[in-house]
Design goal:
two-stranded antiparallel sheet, Phosphorylase Kinase, domain 1, 5-stranded antiparallel beta sheet, 8 helices, 279 residues
Length: 279
């Protein structure tokens, strides 16, 4: 065999170096995790971002237990049209895990509103979005879970303005013994109304936050968007809420805020009636 043949054989016998992955693109930053994508189809949610063996971003604090908790919630919920699809935990580096989720091409509802302040969808579209939220939350409750952090920052948009619920890192699940350590953001937080904070029923908190989500979707702005969080808390503590004049879902929102509903299914049924009346 010629020397040239030996060289060729040696070259072809060498193992191929592994394909380098695309650098992760950060599309969102939460209170404990980064959300990144490399394929624009799925995302990784985790406290560290690794690329080709290199640490790119680090929150500086682990949240393995919270990610495992969220993965368990998603697995328990299973597939549903109004729930983000979860593909489970992935080990991105030795001992470091991230959650693989489907990517919402239009981002969160809140981010979408901020980008389209003057381009409101039709009221029929907005009512359908609100109905998606109520149906999704009703399903979560039916499965024995509580979101504990419902807001338009955690509601995700797909083509046709379809809405899916996500971000269950602080959710509760019957029989799992998860600690209640998550509160709603201020504009979605039910005031105590003379009760001790821990005496307020979780379901009432959930339905109040649903009312705020319906408001944000139909009014196309956050409740008391002109106020800071402290001013907003003061208003709520006094029983003062945003004006609902002209809002087609005003009776539904008010009933959520006044603790008039027992279930999210009741809210969904009223939204369906409201939707039909606007056709």
């Amino acid at each position: 065999m010629s020397d040239l043949s030996n060289v060729r054989q040696a070259l072809t016998a060498q193992p191929k170096s592994p394909m380098r992955q695309a650098k992760p693109k950060v599309i969102a930053v939460g209170t404990t995790c980064y959300v990144t994508t490399t394929d624009n189809k799925t995302v990784l949610k985790g406290y560290q971002v690794w690329s080709n063996g290199d640490l790119v971003y680090d929150y500086g604090a682990t949240c393995e237990e919270r990610l495992a908790r969220e993965a368990k919630i998603y697995k328990h919920l299973g597939r549903h049209p109004q729930i983000l699809t979860c593909f489970g935990l992935e080990e991105v580096h030795t001992g470091v895990h991230s959650l693989r989720l489907e990517m919402a091409p239009l981002g969160s509802i809140r981010a979408y509103i901020q980008k389209n302040v003057t381009s409101l969808p039709t009221i029929q579209h907005r009512l359908q979005m609100a109905l998606d939220v109520a149906i999704g939350l009703s399903y979560v409750h039916l499965r024995g879970a509580m979101s504990c952090d419902l807001s338009c920052a955690n509601l995700f948009l797909f083509d046709g303005l379809q809405v899916k619920l996500g971000d269950f890192g602080g959710a509760l699940l019957d029989g799992c013994g998860f600690e209640w350590d998550q509160t709603h953001e201020s504009r979605y937080q039910l005031p105590s109304r003379g009760r001790e904070y821990y005496e307020v029923p979780h379901m009432k908190r959930e339905l109040f936050s649903l009312g705020s989500a319906i408001y944000e979707i139909t009014a196309w702005k956050k409740p008391f968007s002109e106020l800071n969080d402290d001013e907003d808390n003061e208003k709520y503590a006094k029983g003062e809420f945003p004006l609902l004049d002209g809002n087609v879902a005003k009776h539904i929102i008010r009933n959520c805020w006044d603790e008039g509903y027992a279930t999210a299914e009741e809210v969904a049924n009223d939204l369906k009636s409201c939707e039909w009346s606007c056709i």
